[in-house]
Amino acid sequence: EVHLVESGGGLVQAGGSLRLSCAASGLTFNDYRIGWFRQVPGKEREGLACIANGDRSTLYSDSVKGRFTISTDYAKSAVHLQINSLKPEDTAVYYCAADYDPYGLDHSLSVRAYEDWGQGTQVTVSS
Prior knowledge:
Number of helices: 0
Helix content: under 10%
Number of strands: 11
C-alpha cells in the first residue's frame, strides 16, 4: 500500500521560504510520478508541480513557475517542494500525490491523474 506523508508546513512571513517534503513508502519509488497540489477552502485542488522519479523530468503550473522547485531525494524516498518568495495567496493545505508512471510519460497536474494522496500540510503566509 502506498503511503505518503507531507511535512514542512507552518506559519511564515511573506517573502520567506519553505521546503515541503513528501515521504513515500510502500512503492517502487523510481516507478512513480509525485505531484504537489494545494487547496484552499471552497476552491478546487490546484496542481502545482510534478516529477517523474524515473528520469527526474518535471512539469510546473504556470502560476508557480520560477518560485517553486520540485526535486527528488532518492536516498530518503522523498520529494521536496521548495517555495520561495512566499505570498499570502500561497496560504493553503499542500498535498502530495503519487501515480504509477515508470517511463515518465504521463506528466499531469490533474487531480484525476493521481491514485494515492497524503493527508496534507498547512502553509500559512502572513502579510
